[in-house]
Amino acid sequence: MDDATIAQKALKIHEELDREVDLLRLRMASKPDAHGDHWLTAFASHFRHFHTQLRSHFEMEEEGGFMKPVVDKRPTLSPQIARLREEHRQMRHLCYELEMFVEECRAPSLQQIAHIRERSDEIIDCLKAHEKAENQLIQDAFQLDLGSSE
Over pLDDT 90: what percentage of the chain? Predict the structure, then answer.
């Protein structure tokens, strides 16, 4: 694949992940029922799906995505790639912790729902910053001006 194709493929995948984030945010913003059970069940389902998509996304980037071509083209960017891989590990861990917390909740309190929302926002904020850094790295590596994906 040529540089532009690799870069465009990476940005397209980031856009797909953005749609998953939007769906998760919609679920987080929905009003909990009186006991929180239905909200929690729906959130848990959405979050598991999001977490699966995120793991697949990270695996693709690390195994067959843009990371190897970036290092091949610009070996001096290896430390940045290593940092991004570490961020993948950290976000997988944050998602796992939240998933375990959600599984342990039964008839969640408003405080537990607030905690779930806060942790979800933290994960999304980390992901957004991470994706921005990846997009910048791709542009730097391939010296492309790809414009905004928005």
Answer: 42
| Residue 67: count of CB within 10 angstroms of its CB | 25
Output helix, strand, coil percentages for the chain, rounded to the nearest 5: 85, 0, 15
If one counts every other C-beta atom within 10 angstroms of the C-beta of residue 74, the result is 16
pLDDT of residue 145: 44
- Cα–Cα distance between 38 and 145 in angstroms, integer? 45
User: Against a cut of 0.85, is the pTM above it?
Assistant: no
pLDDT digits (tens, 9 = 90+) for 84-100: 999 999 999 999 999 99
- For 106, the 3-state DSSP assignment is coil
Domain ranges of the chain: 3-142
3-142 falls under which CATH superfamily?
nmb1532 protein domain like (1.20.120.520)
